[in-house]
Design a protein that fits this description.
Helices cover 33% and strands 25% of the residues. By secondary structure, the protein is of the alpha/beta class. Helix 3 crosses helix 4 and helix 7 runs parallel beside helix 8. The chain binds acetyl coenzyme *A (ACO). Acetyl coenzyme *A binds next to helix 2, helix 6 and helix 7.
Length: 318
């Protein structure tokens, strides 16, 4: 009998502190107008000193477990997607496992920048389909504010912090209809962090050739979403929601146009969250489910593109 991964529950966490474009105007040569028209971002959440990507992941994971009505003891796989881990080791996933008192099971981090959640979801999907595990906790948690140079107006305005979590369960009915991941390292010099120092794992600021990244993102995502639909055996008019990685509203709208999907069918969080890297898709998913826009039986297309370059997608029947 075929086994599928179904979305059983979602959770999210955003730090309390909000940094608006107007706040940034006071410390940088930038404007709310520039940021809004170029990116769609109005504000972002910023992690506090005493928080970490593990503490944020813990809150999001507990909410996802509660919503899924699944006990932590039943989880058989933990994957945390992050490019801002606290330590080289133990992994964020193992630190989270301890906090949630999840019994022995595979637990590891995935580092694929903004496509990290797509990678984590794909791996969990494969393991559930292969009937290796029944319940998986898949998380994106990021402290991007600790990775940006707050003097660099071309990058710091883009990013925000937060965590999103999903619980997947094995089921006889789909579920995730298709998922895919890929990367092309030849573009590694268009978006990268400088060499780190010994103080912290992620103290190498982000460097980005923004307009080049923009163009390749739009092109790659257009192919990606077509392929995703093909793999799932769906037409674009059968899609109910696009749940994209939130890097730039113009990239997202270009992808939606390519799919001939109306803007009302996009779950957008970018205005309030900014780019939370691997956390952006699970946070958007959580938002769409919480406000009841996403309904049981509907078809969702998740897609992401990030440094590497890396990219990935999933088509889900909710
Ligand atoms: N405020 C005001 N002016 C600015 C700012 C700012 N914050 N930042 C840059 N500018 C200026 C530039 O200096 C430049 O000025 P010039 O024309 O005098 O030289 C001008 O604005 C245009 O700069 P561009 O970089 O060409 O602006 P662009 O329209 O490309 O927008 C942006 C920049 C928003 C970064 C866009 O290129 C983008 O979104 N790129 C993709 C980002 C992305 O998807 N990243 C992938 C995920 S991230 C990850 O994986 C971790």
């Amino acid at each position: 009998m075929n086994m599928y991964a179904r979305l059983a529950g979602t959770g999210g966490y955003l730090p309390q502190k909000i940094l608006t474009n107007h706040d940034l105007e006071k410390q940088l040569d930038t404007s709310d107008e520039w940021i809004t028209t170029r990116t769609g971002i109005k504000q972002r959440h910023i992690i506090s000193e005493d928080e970490s990507i593990v503490s944020m992941a813990e809150i999001a994971a507990k909410e996802a477990l509660k919503n899924a009505e699944v006990n932590a003891q039943d989880i058989g796989l933990i994957i945390v997607a992050t490019c801002t881990p606290e330590r080289a080791f133990p992994s964020s996933a193992c630190l989270l496992q301890e906090r949630l008192q999840i019994p022995a099971c595979p637990a590891f981090d995935v580092m694929a920048a903004c496509a990290g959640f797509s990678y984590a979801l794909h791996i969990a999907n494969q393991l559930i389909q292969a009937q290796q595990i029944r319940y998986a906790l898949v998380i994106g948690s990021e402290a991007m504010s600790r990775l940006v140079d707050w003097q660099d107006r071309s990058t710091c305005i883009l990013f925000g912090d937060g965590a999103g979590a999903v619980v997947l369960k094995a089921d006889n009915t789909p579920g995730i209809l298709a998922s895919q991941i890929s990367a092309d390292g030849q573009y590694s010099k268009l978006l990268y962090t400088e060499k780190g120092n010994n103080q912290a794992l992620y103290r190498g600021y982000i460097q980005m050739q923004g307009s080049e990244v923009f163009k390749i993102a739009v092109k790659t995502l257009s192919h990606l979403v077509e392929e995703a639909l093909h793999l799932a055996g769906l037409r674009s008019d059968q899609l109910d929601w696009l749940v994209p990685h939130q890097a730039n509203v113009r990239i997202i709208e270009a992808t939606a146009r390519h799919l001939k999907l109306s803007p009302e069918k996009i779950i957008l969080t970018i205005a309030e969250h900014g780019n939370t890297s691997a956390a952006s898709i699970p946070l958007a998913l959580h938002q769409g489910i919480c406000d009841k826009r996403i309904k049981p039986g509907q078809h969702l297309l998740l897609e992401s593109f990030g440094a590497g370059f890396t990219w990935g997608s999933a088509v889900i029947r909710y």
